[in-house]
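Next up, a specimen:

>
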Amino acid sequence: MGMVLRYLSLGAVALGALLVGAVQHPPFTRAQGVPLFDPTTGVCSSYPEPSIPGSWQVSAPRGFPGAVAPGDSVQIGLRDKFGDTDDYDVTATVLLPDGRVAQADTTLTGSDWAYLQFPDDFDSGSTDSAGAYTILWTIDDSLVACDGFAIVPGD
């Protein structure tokens, strides 16, 4: 979780005051800034090369067959397409559009998908706010993947 909090410390200027708890961490500096999901392109901006080798694949709703509405539960996932048989403890951190942060842990085994339901499996958060939600996947405090989804208000 430390690496994610260092990313968030750096991104606080760009994202506004993020509430990451009472623990203060020194800022993690890197030229690209904090990774953020862009729903218009379907990828994260300022996304660094993963520091843990793997063929990382992510899964989140992309608006097909329908848009994600406020209040919906969202399935997100991560896998290493050519993963070995080792288990990895994985943390998913979701950056909500209003600046809040939610986290959940899961286990990744081999090339199997590890799925979580947001917000059901997380320590906090909701899908009540319209906008882009960024998902930062970490293993041992190292960012391995960035993904996201968008909440579109109903008519």
The chain has one helix and nine strands. The CA atoms of residues 102 and 124 lie 5 Å apart. Helices lie at 2-15.
